[in-house]
Design a protein that fits this description.
This protein is α/β, with parallel strands linked by helices and about 240 residues long. Helix content is about 35%, strand content about 25%.
């Protein structure tokens, strides 16, 4: 099977030599096209460290990461940055929108970095993505004038701007109420399914985790159990 993203035997140490922490201990994971995965576990168990390595924002001390069966670990920083912008979409708990930019302008930012589309094409794609997240009537509204749920939907549209195969999300619904949390998750779920993408999200939300295809439980830098949708999880 061809995976959207794989990692094998990831090890990562954090901190200085005398006080360093063994943050990841032999972590392996495979993300299939069209699948949604949750990583759960207590604070400090290595979830965010894993997400940053999978997102090519940090380097493992050993082990490897592949995207679309292509090894990433040996690439130079500038090439990693290009692959990251091209292949990976990020969604964070704090959406990090440019507050004085309109919804449409925020969504065009990753496309400008990639530099493949004309101005008209970027605006057209941003409009289409915002319509997909039910914000077609707020294209020109500055993000600071949007509600929390609307801002997170702009962040989802921005993550999809360059049509990445992999979406990584760190507590993407952590600041949303129950209704907006469910709405954001269902939106991501449908986009991943229909686009044959893969989604890996870190979450403390038991109900969202239980709705994923796979749940990976982490403890002390290890994945101690992986199980499919419907099995009871321990968060």
């Amino acid at each position: 099977m061809s995976f959207c993203l794989s990692c094998k035997d990831i090890e990562r140490y954090l901190g200085e030599e005398e006080s360093r922490v063994h943050a990841l201990r032999g972590v392996s994971i495979d993300l299939e096209p069209g699948s949604v995965h949750a990583v759960v576990g207590p604070s400090g168990c290595g979830k965010s460290t894993l997400l940053y390595i999978l997102g090519l924002l940090d380097h493992p001390d050993s082990g490897w990461v592949e995207i679309q069966s292509e090894p990433m670990s040996h690439l130079a920083d500038n090439e990693l940055a290009r692959r990251r912008n091209e292949m990976i979409g990020f969604i964070f708990q704090f959406h990090f929108l440019m507050e004085d930019f309109s919804s449409q302008e925020n969504v065009t930012i990753p496309m400008r970095r990639l530099g493949r589309l004309s101005e008209a094409e970027m605006r057209e794609r941003a409009t289409s993505l915002l319509e997909a997240v039910d914000l077609g009537d707020k294209l020109d509204r500055p993000s600071r004038h949007l509600s929390g749920g609307e801002q997170q939907r702009v962040a989802i549209a921005r993550a999809l701007a360059n049509d990445p195969r992999v979406i990584l999300a760190d507590e993407p619904t952590g600041n949303l109420d129950t209704q907006n949390s469910q709405r954001a998750f269902e939106l991501l779920h449908n986009l991943v399914r229909h686009g044959e993408k893969a989604l890996l999200l870190v979450t403390h939300n038991r109900f969202i985790a239980d709705a994923c295809d796979w749940v990976h439980e982490m403890k002390d830098g290890r994945i101690i159990k992986s199980h499919p949708h419907g099995e009871r999880i321990s968060v």
